[in-house]
Every structure is written in C-alpha cells, then in structure tokens.
Amino acid sequence: MNTPAHLIFGMTAFGKAGRPGVTAAAFAGSLLPDLSLYLLAGWHLQVLGTSPGVVFGQLYFSEDWQSIFRIDNSIILWGVALAWGLMARSPIVIALCGAALLHLGLDFAFHHDDGRAHFWPVTNWIFESPVSYWDPARYGDIVGPVEVAVSLLCCALLWRRFESRWMRGVIITFGAMEFAPFIIFAIMFSGG
Description:
By secondary structure, the protein is mostly helical. The chain has eight helices and no strands.
C-alpha cells in the first residue's frame, strides 16, 4: 500500500485526541516499516543520481537492501515489542507497534512480487500475495481505488476526532498525498 494510506490507517486505528505522544507514536509506527526504503532510495536517487530503474528494479531486490527490510518489516520483532508494550501497559509502545503491525499486515496482503520477509528471523520466506495494491494484473485497478476511498473515509473520521488546526492540516496533507496520485494516474492512463 502507499505510505500515505499507512499513515492514515495507523493514525485512525491508534491516534488519540488529546494524547499527542500516542498519536505521534501511531504516526511513527505507520512510517517506520517504509523509512529504510525512503532513506536508501532517496540517497541513491537524489545524492548518487542512480536511475529509478536501477533503484527499484535491482537495488530494491538486492540482498543488501532486503537484509535491512527484514528487520524493519519483521512481524516477529514488532510482535515481541508489542507484547512488551502490553505487559508494560505503555500506550505509546502499543500505538507504535500496533501501527507498525497494521502496516505490515496490509503490506503482506497487498504485495505480490515486491513483498518482504515478514517472518524474519524465523524465516526469509516472502509471501507473494495474489493481490497487489498497484499492479492491474493482480487486481490493482480495484484495490487502488478502494484504498483511496477507505483512506478518505478515515480522513473524515480523523477530522472529527482531532479539532486542532495543526492536526487538521496534517489530515488534509495525508488525504491529498493519498488522493493526488490516483487522479494523476487516471489522467495519464485515460488515453486523452
């Protein structure tokens, strides 16, 4: 799924009005499984000038990058951390780990040939979902619009939950980040 959708879903599931630490933890947990990809890809694309084809066609699938993704995308590691947070009754750790696990569960369900080893360190196996959030050959033309619709519905729920201008600005930004590519791709591929 797109990172803005993960942020929206994580904030909807775990963000709490009047609890900025918990809400920040929900945001962080929603982002952390993708952060290494952004840092690695950003470094190569912006600093080293590596072509997007090499970054996403070769480096993404390289053993070096996958060894990093195994750690920050491990359902096992995040699950252990969540169990600790539950035992400690820490709302911040619960929001952080819960949002990360929600992210990973959605990735597990909607990544076909670009998934990650979600069960490391037990195994390096990568599930190839029959459904993709982006690939039309794997129902991406259905999943993508559903993702956008559910994201916008969640934005409406977040709008009702959070009344501060700051949070409403964040909600609008996340909603726009999720919806804009849908419109751009629809225009690009409409044939006219």
